[in-house]
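Researcher: Going back to the complex we discussed earlier. I've cleaned up the inputs and rechecked each line, so this should be the final set. Can you rerun the prediction on the complete assembly and write out the structure?
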Amino acid sequence: MSIETERNPWMSAPPESEDEQEQVEHLRKDHLLLDPVGMEAMNQDALGSMTRHGRWTWMLIVVLGGLAMMAGVGWLVQLFVGLGFTGLNRTIFWGMYIINLVYFIGIGHAGTFISAAFRVMGFETRRPIARAAETVTLFALAAAGLFPIIHLGRPWKVYWMIPIPNQRQLWPNFQSALEWDAMAIMTYVVGSVLFIYIGLLPDLAMARERTGVNWRRRLYSALSLGWRGTDRQWALHESVSTIFAYVIIPVMFSVHTIVSWDFAMTIQPGWHSTIFGPFFIVGALYSGVAAVLVAMGFLRRFLKLGYFIREEHFDVMAKFLLIMSFAWIYFYFGEFLVTWYGNLPPEMTILDLLLYGEAAPLWWLMIFCNVVVPVGLLWMRRVRRNPGILFVIAVFIQVGMYLERYLIVGVMLGRPELPFNYSWYYPGLEIPIAIGAFSFVIFFYFIFTVFVPIISTWEVGEGQFLHGLRKIGRKITKFKSDMH
Amino acid sequence: MSEQDASGKRRWTMIVDLDKCSGCGACVVACHAENNVPIAAEDQVVADRSQHWMRIERYWEGEYPDVKARFVPVLCQHCGEAPCEPVCPVYATYHDERGGLNAMIYARCVGTRYCANNCPYRVRFFNYFDPVFAEPLNNQLNPDVTVRSAGVMEKCTFCVQRIRRAEHTAKVEGRTLADGEVLPACVQACPTGALMFGDRYDAASAVAKLLEHNGRAVRLLETLGTDPSIYYLKGGTSHVD
Amino acid sequence: MKISRRDFIKVSIAGAASTVLVGCQPNQRYVELEPYVVPPEEAVAGQATWYATTCGMTPAGNGIIVRVMNGRAVKIEGNPEHPLNRGKLDALGQAGLQLLYHPDRLHGPVVQETPGRREFKPLHWNEAVNILAENVKRAGAGLAIWAGLTTSGHLVDLFKRFAKATDAPAPVFYDLYAALHSYDALASACGGALPTYDIRRADLVFAFGDFLGSGPNPVYYGVQFGAFRGQALGKRGYLAQFEPRMSITGAVADRWVPVKPGHEALAAGAMARIIAEEGFGGAERAARAGELAPEVDVAAVAEACDLEAEALVKLARAFAEAANPVAIPGGAPAGADNGVEATKAVQILNAIAGVGPLAPGVIPPGITPTTPSTFAEAQALIEKMQNGEVQTLLVYGANPVYELPEAAGFRQALNKVETVVSFSPIIDETAAWAHMVLPERTYLEGWGYRVVTANTGRTIISSRQPVVVPFYQDEATGPAYSTGDVLLTIARGIPDAIAALPWTDEVAYLKQMVGALPAGAYGGSDPDTRWARYLQHGGWWPAEDAEPAASIMELAPVKVKAAASQGEANEYPLYLHVYTPVMLGDGRGASLPWLQGSPDPMTTMTWRSWVEINPQTAHNMGIKDGDILKVTSPYGSIEAPAYVYPAIRPDTVAIPAGQGHLDSGRYAKNRGANVIDLLGATTDATGENLAWSNVRVKVERTGETINLPIFEDKKGAQEHLHF
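Model: Rerun complete. Updated structure for the full complex:
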């Protein structure tokens, strides 16, 4: 990386001694915001990442695209013959399509949370990873938005759920949690896309300025909506971003609450629980943060973004993950304790099924992935600062959280009130479609990085301007400007 | 709609006398015949996709030689507070206020299957494939009842087509519907008379009389507050040894 | 006709004008847009026509009414006026609709060069009848007729007349339904009539076989059972069921007594003896018991039956002290080598209580009941076939290739018959081996009547009439002949026969016979009115009696022994319990998807054969649900998956009949195994009746396992249902 060091304007004086020099270097190595290399160099580095996809990355992209296409073909088949090739049956009517919906919506929470909530709370760590996280949200939501439609028996009638006056005299039923869900997901998708787009504007303009006259330039010109970086534009940008950040947080909380209500509003044993709202939000953030960690690992490794994504960011995210893990355990334990103490036969049937019954292997695997691995490892600083290990842990958490949804939807549904109708879920066509959906998300994530700088350089630059080093006594300390 | 229709609300009610049910399956076939319910092929049965609006659940109690089998015919309970109704986002399932029926419009169904998940009795069935009636078996189809396509839910309707037909006949003949004039196909077929049907709001009807102070009458999963329209008369006992 | 240009223009203008005029009418004449808020079920469209006729799926003779809309039969229900089934119907009877519209029905007559190759060529009806007439004429006394028990009474008469006129052997009426319900043994034990009981007011019933799910009259007994359980003033009948494998009757019984197979009659005899010895039920009953029940060692019998002596005493006491007890014979005991004795032993219990079976009705002249032949009579005909004494064999309403055990030799005997003619509407196993098939109309398209099998104390003649026009009237094969008309047509060419069968067609025959009936429940002053009312109401029966007459049986003391087994106990350790399942009956339900796909009530199995085995036995042998078992008897072996069944004796396996068809249409073909392959052609002690229930088998695992096509969740069904 040929980035020239540039003196931070806020830095009081150059280091005077070797000891000071060492301290400064140490701090700069640790903290991105103390390590400015100049706006231009940073921009070039971020833009360069769009062309830094190696041969293996491209091959991976092609494979992922192929898998996504496979899922598309699978869906076409399903459209023509019905849902018969799925593993659903006369007892279990919801399966992996709904599990995927919940899973991807959950993943989609992290981007918004990191970007909006961290912004509102002034967490500076967010700056280089916010866009990466938002992009996870974007494509996870795209996948999540597809699944309710794939799930439908007659997907071509999906617009019947939208309240538009029509000659059929149909009107959606606003008593239905699914209708709330449809509204909430639509709001969240629109809101998230806008939020991401607003954050992207200065960087699109930056890219526009630094690209030769070719298709890329035309693309960025169109997308940057005439951004010139004037004071007025920056002021508007600031206020819009802040308003959006405040608005999108409750929307985010409501979405997963409402998704959980799809289950909790029913009287299916195992589902009918008041705890589901917060429990699902915690679960969503847990899996989402882990997903962002996976993405960060990818970016740092494949797009060589080591300058921007540093160990400090992994460390912070890993700590957050640990906290979410504890929160998740708390909710899960709480729910089971209540069930066990209540000792209602249909609920106990499900508890037995999970703890010792047919579903026990899945359940204990989930506990291993969601509890044993993260809690056992993340307390170690060495682990938290090791992107490789964190990547593995994050994948474990993805598996665990997917299993958790699988148990709630695919397994619990198999234990209705009347024991004659117990059933077990063996997914069929859902598996290729789910693999395709994962491929779809990763595929578009990579494609996105080809077209859009995945690091928000203006945010990083802003951060670097606001941070600096100051010598207090003999110690060099970092400080944050209050000029913001 | 005339005033005559609007005035008298009914509550169609079925009584299942578990002491009389021999599990002979006549009701099951009657329902298939009346309501164009498709038969699941063997691989679909293995995939647990049997489709029987009326089913006889058989429970075992005890072990050989003191083993007992109990039949419980289960069909849509036509709940007064049906859990399946509020959850449908497109009003495909709705409550028929005229007769207290839990009704379903197949043409409106988009196939979210939410109703089926929320049915504690699991009496709603989903068409995973289009039904197949090999020519000329399609001639057997009842013209009064829709053949449901792939992607929609279906369920017992209490043979609403029979109810409407009887109401229509009564109206044409200028009289009110008599007790026992409407019988769903299952009730009509039941050899032992374990199934009875009538309007519970009509105090003079046979079901209303039978339910009055009947210590054997229970409703399935009544604690869920679904207010089912089906009453089960628990098996009686007579001791001789 | 010549059309000038002027005419053409005039007509064109008139046509155009009328089109415009019609088109200008208000649009509601054409379409009314119905929004998606009114389901079609709410709209009442069209009027249905109901026709009364008689069920042809079982020999019981249930009256049915068929709903016809736009010329299509769409629903079969019980005839509410019919005194046998009183508006009720079983699964089999309702599924008959699918026989009418079965996709594999023959459109017209077919012939094949080589029997068994199933290469059929279509034939014109006239040609087919001519060929048959030739064959029958040539055969002369070498004509043989084999018919099933659902055969209409008029055909029974025509067959008999035809055979008599041509000096041919008497027709045989025998099918699997008769065999597995031991019609022959039950009738010979009860003075020639099938015993039927009135249990409506009984307070205690002992049954020795399934009578609600199978048996000669399941619907009749179903109606009776409803009354039995719901008697006046809340009185409720008590039912005890003596059988090694719990049938649906056993399931609804208050007490299921798993007697050792072949020992049921011993238990009955012991109870009779206990009544005598202990003096239960008053002096009169005890005295009668003393006369009729020979000495037995009750303790030894109880041990042999695998029951506790104390339980037998309690049951005997309950029977003797009941006001109106009834013992219903039948089931497996009647099909053992001592079937007649066993049935009599059960009847002795009735005799002690002073009840008898309902009296058979008096058959009016001109009416012919379908009386089953014994197995010995059927065997005699097979022997004739083997000896080459039969040139032409007519098979009607029966499927002996499928229904008879291999050892009976029917299949081999067919090779010796010059011409085999089947009248089956679908190619069944027998038709596959026939030279010619003249498909009979299904019972919903044909004429006839059935005298109901049950002796309900009065005569019930159940009418049969076409409810729809014959479904297949293909141009290529010409108008379809019914079998009755085929016979009458052929008779015209045979001088001996023409005098015995002088009618122009079967309707003329039926009108003559029905017109001669005495005044029945529906009256009518002249034959035409009587005929019309007979068709309208579904038959003829006397006006309702106050109380059906019971016959008192003259019984001598019977000393029964345990049934002897076919097969050595050390080689074949398990008893085989064969039964007719509720859905498929004796196999005639197997071709209909409604019956194949509706779950068997006890096992919830569909589409397959299965082997029921006690959980303990299964555990000991390492057998799990779905393991394919090889079941071997001294006569053959079959393979079927295991179904672990909690209510069967550990020394018994049960296999339902009805599956294992090689033909009989797409829904039956190559599905499951035919349990008849495990049976021999041994007759019972009287030498008349087939002994089918005392075969022993051994069971081995083949190593294969399948997923059972069951409706239930097997674990869940063991859980407690919380109401």
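Model: Worth noting: Residues 597 and 606 of chain C are 5 Å apart (CA to CA).
Researcher: Good, that matches what I expected from the previous run.
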